[in-house]
Amino acid sequence: MAPPVPGVAPCLRSVNTGELSEVVFNNWSPRSVLPVWVDFDGRPRHYPVLQPRSGRRMYSYRGHLWLFRDAGTNDGLLVNQQELFIAAPNVIKADITLPVFTLKERCLQVVRSLVKPVDYRKLDIVRSLYEELEDHPDVKKDLQRLSLERSEILRNGVLE
User: Fold this and answer.
1) How far apart are CA 19 and CA 143, in angstroms?
2) How far apart are CA 20 and CA 6, in angstroms?
3) Average pLDDT, stretch 102-121?
C-alpha cells in the first residue's frame, strides 16, 4: 500500500482481484440489515436488505470490503465482531450482530425514533445533545473514520 499523501484523505476501497469468494451473510440481529459494498472508488453501494435472522449466499471477490447497517436507522452493525468485512476465499461466513451500544448511543437512537428532527431543539435537554441528535449515523463518515484509523495503524507499523 502506498504511503499516505499529505493533505489527501485516505480512502478505503475494494480491490479488483477477480478472485471469487463465496460467503454467506447471516443476519443474527433482530433488525433489518442493509449490506453495503465499498466499491473500487471507495463509494458505498447498497445491496438488498436482509431480514432479521435470515441469511443470503453472496458471490463476492477477495479484497472486497463490506459494511452492514441497520436498514431503518443506519446505525453501524458488526460483522464477525468487526466493523468491516473483507472478503477472502477462506472466509465462508459473515455473521452480522448488534454491537454493544453505550447507554448514550442507545438513548440517542430511541430519541431519534420517537422525535422528528425538526423537533429536536424543542426538547428540554442539554444543548450539546441537540448536535449529537442531529449527527445521524452515516456510512460515508464511518468510511472516512475507518480509513483514518487504518492509515494510523499502517503509519505506526501495527497491522492486525
Assistant:
1) 24
2) 34
3) 95
Q: How far is CA 81 from the centre of its chain?
A: 12
Question: In which residue are the cell numbers 435472522 written?
Answer: 53
d(CA 53, CA 25): 10
Degrees to nearest 5, angle at CA 112 with 109 and 118: 160
Cell readout for 100 is 454493544
- The DSSP-derived string for the chain is -PPPPTTS-----------EEEEEEEE-SSS-EEEEEE-TTS-EEE-PPBPTTEEEEEEEETT-EEEEEETTT--B-EETTBS-EE--TT--EEEEE-----HHHHHHHHHHHHS-GGGGGGS-S-HHHHHHHHS---HHHHHHHHHHHHHHHHHTT---
Q: pLDDT of 93-103, one tens digit each?
A: 999 999 999 99
pLDDT surpasses 80 at 155: no
CB 70 within 8 A of CB 43: no
Taking only the tens place, the pLDDT of each residue in 63-78 is: 999 999 999 999 999 9
The pLDDT of residue 11 = 85
Query: 76, 142 in Cβ contact below 8 A?
Result: yes
